[in-house]
């Protein structure tokens, strides 16, 4: 650890450039994950495809991204970080250029797959590197900066794409991505250093293959709540995927050099961190997806206005991320975490109790409360989890947290969709007016996630301000 910290010793400018370039590249890639939802109608008309087909630009991206995350620790241990970072940038840039000139949807989808491979590798690696180059006593501030990528970029993605689409075509969004990533690539030659210790070993391809069960699991989760799904086939896919994942877990515990060190899960404080990161991410992603729908279906806002209504929450989240890092370093991570979980829980509770009486301003304030709470939870709890592990396992720990967070986020969105559809349809069957039925559907969603976040609040009481293991 001392050797890796020493790379920047006495040269704060070099470290700032390193962190800034890493942040710019990862932030841009993170925005690409959530930015296309606003452009769906435009892309459907351009390529002449249906809504379920165009959604694969996001669903397929997520599936590929998740399958790359468990491989990230092996890459960090076997490939010099500078070379790995540059390879990821090139991969993402090539994918973006393919999308820009795609003559049809399959070619665009291929470009998105290339982008997703890069993002899936970089997300866990980015967090691992930031933790590794930062002394434990200063990790709060550093992880606050990391939160800008992990939380804020997800929230602002649809907003940025909405603004770009207002003034240019959908290709304009990818032109911006290509310019930024190319600039980051050029600067990386001067300012990115090899900060991770290498421990070369062979990649276990059986583990890689069995980890593909993640794709099947996430695919089935994303079918929940949809109509016209062949559930016989889906249950078969789910069964095969769960068997593959069970073997993946078994193998990681029984081979000499596992691809993903799952023994990190034997640390209870780390397990709590994994769950709390998931609960925080669920609150954030459900807010960014469900609230715009509520604005359009209940408050009757236009798609553009509903997207812009997310701006205050995203700005508030972005401003709070660095602040919560400083507070965590000063007052302790657990105190900050408890404040955040309380904010999230109160937000969902008010939504459930007063949803029928809230206007746009009230909804925006509650979105700010929930997203602001996320800033107090996501990175502090990830830092607590990392501090519970030896330095040698941080890369594996961040990969596990990132993967589980993605699965729980997808599950949260699926559950919200199912509840919204089921309750609304049930109320319509009873003879309720469509507006009343829709309101009841959303109220059921708010109640469900109020209960989820109460559980998260209880778990946050159990977590400890951990001391570093040897």
TrEMBL record:
The chain crosses the membrane at residues 14-34, 54-76, 88-107, 113-133, 145-167, 173-193, 205-225, 231-250, 270-295, 301-324, 336-354, 360-386, 407-424, 444-463. Its main location: membrane. InterPro entries: MFS, MFS_dom, MFS_trans_sf. The keyword NAD does not apply. The keyword Thylakoid does not apply. SUPFAM superfamilies: MFS general substrate transporter. One of its GO terms (cellular component) is plasma membrane. Keywords: Membrane, Transmembrane, Transmembrane helix, Transport. Gene3D superfamilies: MFS general substrate transporter like domains (1.20.1250.20). It is a multi-pass membrane protein. GO terms for molecular function: transmembrane transporter activity. It is found in: Cell membrane. Residues 18-468 form the Major facilitator superfamily (MFS) profile domain. This is MFS transporter. It comes from Pediococcus parvulus. The lineage of its organism: Bacteria, Bacillati, Bacillota, Bacilli, Lactobacillales.
